[in-house]
Amino acid sequence: MHTLTESPAWQALESHRQTMALASIAQLFDAEPQRFAHFSLRVGGMLLDYSKNLVNQDTMHLLAELARARGLGTQMRQLFSGGKINVTEDRAVLHNALRGEQAVLVDGVDVMPQVRATLQRMQAFSDRVRDGRLGGHGGRYTDVVHIGIGGSHLGPMLATRALAPYTGGGPRVHFASNIDLAALQRTLAPLDAATTLVIVVSKTFTTSETLANARTVHDWLSRALGAAAERQLVAVTANTQHAAEFGVAAEQIFPFWDWVGGRYSLWSAVGLPVALAVGMDGFRQMLHGAHEMDEHFRNAAFEKNMPVVLALLGVWYNNFFGAAAHAVLPYDESLALLPAFLQQLDMESCGKSVCVDGTPVDGDTGMIIWGAAGTDAQHSFFQLLHQGTRLVPADFIAACQPHHTGEEHHAILMANFFAQTAALMNGAPNADNPHDRFPGNRPTNSLLLDRLTPHSLGQLLALYEHKVFVQSVIWGINAFDQPGVELGKKLAARILPELDNNEPVSGYDASTNGLIDFYKANRETQFRERGPQ
Ligand code: F6P
């Protein structure tokens, strides 16, 4: 059995790379006038142009061969049929079932009835909140506060912000995740507890930050409302027992299941704030958009398959050109949180050093995902993209139709979008002054949505979910666990009681001992009992 990098498919790519490393993307366009048509794909109203990459037909063919050799087809069938591909946690991975209709069996039981039942409960609940039949102590809910972190936070916050034009009179939805009390205080300060619904979202219902924030918000509600506070508290969790023990009434607990990964959970009841913000019809449209991408991913040939193509390009630059980072650049203020969402999705999924079978990975895995909204980003870090020494492939994302009527603004935005990818590719390699020289040949993908709607947002997020999955299959890693987050959590739990007094500590390395002692000596107040603020 070959290792990944010894395999014939990899070796073929390695020798092909030596040819391509001498090519320029601009020359590839000169040689192939139909290049835009050949290297672009459409799914529904979404266009992916990947012609501005250092690839030709041979490259894409060889990369697709690598995916075949790595068993991508089999892994995809496993994914969609409820196979326990999250092997380290012995779990199925079925976020696609949340937006599908077909029966899927886990341990012989169809998961779809519980999916549909929960959607119906979300529908009933969000309808009643939005039309005012269900309100707080002070009447109709004006505000919703969402408490969660990581996958129980980033997706709902991104979707709620992205779909702001679709709220149609729904309650304002606020998000607090950080254990830094400043975040929660800032969120709660302008709100009236009597008309605020609180949703605590945690798959495990054991995450320390979320539970501490939930206790603080619960106290805030109780101080204002007394025993009536409970009515305004909702939980979304796969650990319904813990939520009940926390004090959430059974009828206010929305379940999801261990086969929904945290960073893949937006499509479950974790999306409740989205349904409250834009209505359940909007939430269902988002599910339909994601389902459309699922069907494309399942059925399209690898060479014509949008998530597969994005993943193959990622592997190409990561493993054959040494690119360590990948930029995500939404030219759409509504998608300003997309880089943060994709950071967790990609880096928690692909930041692994061992393969599924526990052996060390053969080559680099997950890239550093980062980015910000254009055109703002142009005025901060684009200098490095254009003239820095490192290769940073980038995804540019925009919508053809804005939600506003400011045509001039949108034209300027789009002119910049088009200009940047052209400049990154063509550069200005012959400028007289070396400071004005741009090497060019910097690869980009352009994703154009017809319009940012619930449907196209669903498509876009599912596109990236599947991209991440394909990369994980090629690298041979498990995209659905995250053991690397545990060590720090355990250590924080051990350190926390040490902060209850002003004694010097000695149980850690010299740096950590020194830092804790410095903190104790310099904190403003002497030891205070921890508890609600
Ligand atoms: O610490 C990382 C993590 O486990 C993520 O994977 C997860 O999305 C987040 O914490 C929140 O977990 P929970 O939903 O269980 O509170």
Percent of residues in beta strands: 5-15%
**What does the radius of gyration come to?**
25 Å
Molecules bound to protein: 6-O-phosphono-beta-D-fructofuranose
Structural class: alpha/beta
* Helix content, binned percent: 40-55%
* Global mean pLDDT: 96
Characterize the overall form.
globular
Strand order of the largest sheet: 1-2-15-14-12-13
Note the total helix count. 19
Poorly predicted ranges: none
Kindly report how far apart the N and C termini lie: 59 Å
Biggest beta sheet summary: 6 strands, mixed
Q: How many strand elements?
A: 15
Explain what the structure shows.
This protein has 533 residues and is an alpha/beta fold. 44% of the residues lie in helices and 12% in strands. The protein has helices at residues 8-20, 25-31, 35-38, 57-69, 72-80, 112-131, 154-162, 181-188, 208-225, 240-246, 272-278, 280-299, 306-320, 338-350, 382-387, 407-426, 454-475, 486-495, 510-522; strands at residues 40-43, 46-49, 105-106, 109-110, 135-136, 139-140, 143-147, 172-176, 196-201, 233-237, 253-255, 325-330, 368-371, 394-401, 444-451. The strands form four sheets. The chain has a six-stranded mixed β-sheet, with helices on both faces. Strands 8-7-9-10-11 form a five-stranded parallel β-sheet, with helices on both faces. The protein has a two-stranded antiparallel ribbon with strand order 3-4. A hairpin with a 2-residue loop joins strand 5 (135-136) and strand 6 (139-140). Helix 1 runs antiparallel to helix 4 (57-69) and helix 13 crosses helix 17 (454-475). The longest helix is centred in the C-terminal third of the chain and has 22 residues, at 454-475. The protein binds 6-O-phosphono-beta-D-fructofuranose. The site of 6-O-phosphono-beta-D-fructofuranose (F6P) has 14 residues, from loops.
